[in-house]
C-alpha cells in the first residue's frame, strides 16, 4: 500500500493583477514504503511548494494528498498538523533549527508534537548521525554539516512514514553533501521511511535509482501558466 | 497530544522563550512587581490605618475639650497629634467625674514634650482606664510602676523608651511646647515605670502627674482668666486649674446624646465629641477621595505594567515568526503557539505578582515604620486583606489578556512564507 498518494494536486497563487497563477498541478504521484525518490527541476518550478503541499504546511486548491491512509487535504488544519508531526519528517535546506535549543532539545521538540519525548531515542538518533559529543551544543556552536545532521535526526524523531528533504545539502561541500545523503538514505531505510528528496545537484541525484524531473510530474508551467481568478 | 503532554510542551516553550528574552522578561517582571506591590501596599496600609484610627479609642466613648474642631480634639487627645484647641475649666472635669452618667473620666493636660514625645499630665487611673477590644486593660507595665501623683515621677511609653533610651531610674527635664526646641524646664522628673508595648499611640507618651503640669516652672494657669503661678508647698485653688481635655467613658451609650447637648448646645466654650469613632470615620470619609486617587493611580500602574508585557511580547513576535513557523512545520498546532504566548505573558504577570509581594513587604515596612514613628499606630504586615488575592488575580488575568494580542499575531503566522524560499 502506498505511503503517499497524490491525485490532481493543484496550488495557485494570486498575481498582483488579481489573476491566479498555477504553481503546482500534479495529476498523479505515489510512493511505496522504503521507496527513495529524487526530484530535480529548475528554480521556481514549484518543488518546495510541492513538498509543502505534501507535508500539509500549505493547503492545496484542489486534488488530494493521502499519507499513511489519511487524506491530508480533506481534514482540518489541526488534524493535518498532527498527521505531519506523526507521519512526516522534513529536512529543510536551511535546516530550520531553533537557535535557543540544543541539538538534543531540537530533536526532543519534534517528539513533543509527535509521539512524545523519548530522550533515549533522541540521544540514539544524534549518536547515529555522529553527534554524540555535541548533544548539548546549540546550533550556533555547530558547523553547517553538524547542523544538517541535527536536522536529519530531528526528521526521524517520530518514526515517520515519509521523509521530505528539500535541497538538504545545499549548504555543504561536495564530499560532505555526498556523505550526508548517504546517511539520510541509510537512516530512512533503517527506520522504514520513504524518502522524497529535492535537489539540483547531479552528484546527489546520481546516488538515487529513482530520479524524476519535476517538470514531468508538474503539469503547471508556473512562469507561463496564467489563468483567470476563480470566481 | 494529550492535555498533559500539551501542558508540558506549553511550559517548555514558554520557559524557553522567557529565558531567551531574559532581559525583557526581567524588566517586565519588575514593572509588574512594582505595580502589584504598590497596589497591595496602598490598599492594605490605608485600610489598616483607617481601622486603627477608628478602633484605637482604648474603650473611651467621648472627649470633652475647648470649643473648636472635633477632629482636632480627637487627634490631640486620643492620638496625641496636632495641637490642643485650648483649655477647659477644672470644674468641667469634676462635673464629669461626679456625673452618674459617666463611668470614667481621665483629665489630660498637655503643653510639654521630651525629645519630641508628648508629655501628658493626668491621674494615675489612666493606667487602668484604657481597655482593648476584649475589655482587658491595654496598658501594663513592662518595668516599674505607676507614678505617685504627689511626686515628680514619670511613666514612659514603650516606644519613647526605645527611642530615647529612658529606663526606670533615669531622669529628664521636660521641654516647653508639644515638639521642637522649646526651652527646657528646670524641674527634673524621674522615670518610675515603662509601659509594655500596646501598638497604639499610648506608646509614644510620657505620663506625669497632672499636678506636675500645673506646677511646671514657666506654666501659668488661667482658670479665672487671670494668670496664676503655683507656689511650691501650697495647694492650688481649684478655680485656677485647667485641663486640655477629658477622656470620657459613658455608663451607657444612651447618655452620649444628652451630654453632647449639654456641652455643645448649652455651652459655647466646650466641645463634646461623641462618639469618637464616628468622628474619625468622618475624617477618613472627607479624605477618602485622596485614598481613591491613590488606588486609582496604583491600578493605572498595573494597567501600564501589563501593557508593557503586551508591548515587549508584541515586539518580539516579528523576530520569532521563523520560530513559530518551524514549530508549526514540526507539527505544533496554531492553538499551541497561541497558548504558549498567553502562557508566557501569564507567567510574567505571575512572577511579577510573586516579586510584588516582596515590593509590598518593603513598602509596608517603610510606611509602617513612618506611621508608627509619627502616630504610634502599628500596622501589621500579616493582617489579612482581600487585596492579597484580588491584586495578584487581577494582575495575572490582565497579564493573560495582554498576551492575547501578540498571541493572535503569532497564531496568524504563515508557515510556508516564514520558513524559507520557494524553489
Largest sheet of chain A: 5 strands, antiparallel
Order of helices and strands of chain B: HHEHEHEEHEEHEEEEHEEHEHHHHHH
Quaternary organization: heterodimer
**Which geometry of chain A do the CA atoms define?**
globular
What's the number of extended β-strand segments of chain B?
13
**Number of strand elements of chain A:** 10
Total domains of chain A: 1
Largest interface: A-B, 39 and 30 residues
What features would you describe in this structure?
The complex is a heterodimer of chains A (231) and B (423). By secondary structure, chain A is an alpha/beta fold. Chain A has one domain (34-60, 76-213): P-loop containing nucleotide triphosphate hydrolases (Rossmann fold). Helix content of chain A is 34%, strand content 24%. Chain A has helices at 47-55, 77-87, 103-113, 119-128, 144-155, 174-191, 202-205, 214-217, and strands at 4-14, 20-31, 36-40, 62-67, 70-71, 88-91, 162-166, 194-198, 210-213, 226-227. Chain A has a 5-stranded antiparallel β-sheet with strand order 5-4-1-2-10. A 5-stranded parallel β-sheet of chain A has the order 6-7-8-3-9, with helices on both faces. In chain A, strand 1 and strand 2 (20-31) form a beta hairpin. The radius of gyration of chain A is 18 Å and the shape is globular. The model of chain A is unreliable at 224-231 (pLDDT under 50). Chain B is of the alpha+beta class and 423 residues long. Chain B is 52% helix and 14% strand. Chain B contains 14 helices and 13 strands. Chain A binds chain B through residues 43-49, 52, 55, 57-58, 77-78, 81-82, 84-86, 90, 92-94, 96-98, 100-101, 109-110, 112-114, 116-117, 154, 158, 166-167, 198, and chain B through 1, 5, 8-9, 12, 16-17, 19-20, 322-323, 325-336, 415-416, 419-423.
Amino acid at each position: 500500500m502506498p505511503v503517499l498518494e497524490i491525485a490532481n494536486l493543484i496550488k495557485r497563487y494570486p498575481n498582483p493583477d488579481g489573476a491566479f497563477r498555477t504553481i503546482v498541478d500534479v495529476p498523479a504521484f505515489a510512493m511505496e514504503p522504503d521507496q527513495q525518490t529524487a526530484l530535480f527541476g529548475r528554480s521556481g518550478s514549484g518543488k518546495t511548494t510541492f513538498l509543502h503541499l505534501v507535508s500539509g504546511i500549505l493547503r492545496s486548491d484542489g486534488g488530494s494528498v493521502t499519507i499513511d491512509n489519511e487524506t491530508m487535504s480533506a481534514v482540518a488544519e489541526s488534524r493535518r498538523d498532527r498527521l505531519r508531526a506523526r507521519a512526516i519528517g522534513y529536512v529543510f535546506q536551511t535546516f530550520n533549527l531553533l537557535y535557543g535549543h540544543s541539538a538534543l532539545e531540537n530533536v526532543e521538540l519534534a517528539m513533543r508534537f509527535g509521539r512524545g519525548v523519548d530522550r533515549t531515542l533522541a540521544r540514539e538518533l544524534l549518536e547515529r548521525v555522529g553527534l554524540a559529543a555535541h548533544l548539548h551544543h546549540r546550533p550556533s556552536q555547530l558547523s553547517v554539516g553538524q547542523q544538517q545532521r541535527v536536522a536529519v535526526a530531528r526528521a526521524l524523531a517520530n518514526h515517520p512514514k515519509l521523509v521530505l528533504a528539500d535541497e538538504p545539502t545545499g549548504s555543504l561541500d561536495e564530499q560532505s553533501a555526498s556523505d550526508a545523503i548517504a546517511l539520510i538514505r541509510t537512516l530512512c531505510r533503517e527506520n522504514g521511511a520513504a524518502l522524497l528528496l529535492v535537489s539540483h545537484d547531479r552528484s546527489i541525484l546520481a546516488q538515487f535509482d529513482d530520479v524524476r524531473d519535476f517538470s514531468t510530474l508538474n503539469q503547471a508551467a508556473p512562469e507561463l501558466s496564467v489563468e483567470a481568478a476563480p470566481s | 497530544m494529550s492535555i498533559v503532554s500539551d501542558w508540558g510542551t506549553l511550559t517548555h516553550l514558554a520557559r524557553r522563550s522567557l529565558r531567551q528574552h531574559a532581559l525583557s522578561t526581567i524588566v517586565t517582571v519588575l514593572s509588574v512587581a512594582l505595580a502589584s506591590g504598590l497596589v497591595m501596599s496602598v490598599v492594605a496600609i490605608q485600610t489598616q490605618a483607617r481601622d486603627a484610627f477608628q478602633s484605637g479609642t482604648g474603650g473611651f466613648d467621648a472627649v470633652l475639650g475647648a470649643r473648636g474642631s472635633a477632629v482636632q480634639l480627637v487627634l490631640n487627645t486620643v492620638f496625641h497629634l496636632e495641637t490642643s484647641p485650648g483649655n477647659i475649666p477644672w470644674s468641667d472635669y469634676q462635673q464629669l467625674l461626679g456625673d452618674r452618667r459617666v463611668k470614667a473620666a481621665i483629665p489630660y493636660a498637655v503643653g510639654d514634650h521630651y525629645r519630641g514625645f508628648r508629655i501628658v499630665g493626668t491621674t494615675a487611673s489612666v493606667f487602668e482606664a484604657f481597655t482593648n477590644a476584649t475589655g482587658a486593660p491595654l496598658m501594663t507595665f513592662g518595668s516599674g510602676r505607676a507614678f505617685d501623683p504627689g511626686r515628680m515621677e514619670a511613666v514612659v511609653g514603650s516606644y519613647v523608651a526605645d527611642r530615647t533610651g529612658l529606663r526606670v531610674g533615669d531622669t529628664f527635664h521636660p521641654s516647653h511646647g508639644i515638639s521642637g526646641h522649646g526651652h527646657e524646664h528646670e524641674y527634673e522628673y524621674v522615670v518610675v515605670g515603662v509601659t509594655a508595648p500596646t501598638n497604639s499611640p499610648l506608646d509614644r507618651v510620657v505620663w506625669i502627674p497632672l499636678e506636675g503640669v500645673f506646677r511646671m516652672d514657666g506654666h501659668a494657669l488661667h482658670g479665672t482668666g487671670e494668670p496664676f503661678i503655683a507656689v511650691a508647698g501650697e495647694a492650688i485653688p481649684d478655680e485656677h486649674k485647667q485641663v486640655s481635655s477629658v477622656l470620657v467613658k459613658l455608663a451607657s451609650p444612651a447618655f452620649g446624646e444628652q451630654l453632647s447637648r449639654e456641652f455643645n448646645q448649652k455651652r459655647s466654650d466646650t466641645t463634646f465629641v461623641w462618639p469618637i469613632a464616628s468622628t474619625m470615620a468622618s475624617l477618613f470619609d472627607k479624605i477618602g477621595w485622596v485614598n481613591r486617587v491613590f488606588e486609582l493611580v496604583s491600578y493605572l500602574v498595573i494597567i501600564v505594567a501589563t501593557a508593557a508585557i503586551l508591548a515587549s511580547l508584541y515586539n518580539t513576535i516579528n523576530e520569532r515568526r521563523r520560530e513559530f513557523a518551524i514549530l508549526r512545520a514540526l507539527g505544533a498546532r496554531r492553538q499551541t503557539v497561541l497558548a504558549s504566548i498567553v502562557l508566557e505573558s501569564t507567567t510574567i504577570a505571575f512572577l511579577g505578582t510573586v516579586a510584588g509581594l516582596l515590593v509590598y513587604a518593603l513598602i509596608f515596612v517603610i510606611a509602617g515604620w513612618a506611621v508608627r514613628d509619627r502616630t504610634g499606630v502599628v500596622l501589621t504586615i500579616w493582617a489579612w486583606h482581600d487585596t492579597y488575592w484580588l491584586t495578584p488575580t487581577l494582575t495575572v488575568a490582565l497579564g493573560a489578556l495582554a498576551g492575547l494580542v501578540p498571541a493572535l499575531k503569532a497564531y496568524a503566522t504563515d508557515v510556508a512564507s516564514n520558513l524559507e524560499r520557494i524553489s
